[in-house]
Design goal:
Strand content: under 5%
CATH architecture: Up-down Bundle
Oligomer: single chain
Low-confidence stretches: none
Number of helices: 10
CATH superfamily: Ferritin, core subunit, four-helix bundle
Number of domains: 1
Mean pLDDT: 95
Largest sheet: none
Helix content: 55-70%
CATH topology: Ferritin
Number of strands: 0
Order of helices and strands: HHHHHHHHHH
Length: about 240
């Protein structure tokens, strides 16, 4: 079921990245970011909730959004490798967010024209949220890249670490007319990244060996550790409700 697979992949992307960002709560480098980052995480998790509910409806097997979010094993997740990468330092977190949001913002804008009412409805809210994420993360990439010698070195190191995971953003295609063609988003993503990098004085590295596999359920060990923490309550107390 291509639509089910694509909706689950989108939901997994948003849930896993939302959880990653939430790990900064109480640990951000300044009070403003201690408020901004959890709110960005909530944006992503809110999108994930709607997509998981829709996936459960498409599947038609009686599973709920909680079942899909918390009761699948690692190999059943279809999220991008990029979103599961550890937070690292603040430079790495902001760059990861820019890479993802710079793709999802034009993706959701294109999805506003979807023939599927749920997808179009999600896009109406998510496109606005991703526009803010692009702006917020982009400003930090510029601030750090064009900052002190130390901050610039950390941001360039983040580019070297994460850029190899970006190619997977453009792999796959959903049902025509329902979800946008991922490959068609590439020129807009390239434009935004080039613009931010030019201002941040960053160099785009070559990627001879792109890192992929997330869409096939082939993940690094970091996802297993994340799921162990994220799923603990639901697995320790099956059916628990707030």
């Amino acid at each position: 079921m291509p639509l089910l697979d694509e909706v689950l992949a989108l939901a997994d992307d948003h849930l896993i990245l939302g959880h990653r960002i939430s790990e900064w709560c109480g640990h951000a480098p300044m009070l403003e970011e201690d408020l901004a980052l959890p709110n960005m995480g909530l944006d992503l998790i809110g999108t994930a909730r709607t997509l998981y509910s829709y996936a459960a409806e498409i599947e038609g097997k009686g599973r709920t959004e909680d079942d899909l979010a918390f009761l699948r094993v690692e190999r059943e997740y279809r999220n991008l490798l990029l979103v599961e990468r550890p937070n690292g330092d603040f430079a790495q977190t902001m760059l990861r967010q820019l890479y993802f949001a710079a793709f999802m913002e034009p993706f959701w804008r294109a999805a506003l024209q979807s023939s599927d009412r749920v997808i179009a409805g999600v896009a109406g809210k998510a496109a606005k949220e991703m526009a803010y994420h692009v702006r917020h993360a982009g400003e930090w990439v510029i601030r750090l890249g064009d900052g002190t010698q130390t901050s610039a070195a950390r941001m360039q190191a983040a580019v070297q670490e994460l850029h190899r995971f970006t190619g997977e953003l453009f792999d796959g295609a959903g049902p025509e007319g329902i979800l946008p063609d991922r490959a068609a988003i590439r020129p807009e993503w390239d434009r935004v990244i080039a613009m931010v990098f030019a201002t941040a004085l960053l160099q785009v590295p070559g990627v001879p060996f792109p890192q992929t596999g997330g869409r096939q359920g082939l993940h690094g060990e970091c996802l297993g550790h994340l799921l162990a923490e994220m799923q603990y309550l639901q697995r320790a107390y099956p059916g628990a409700e707030w």
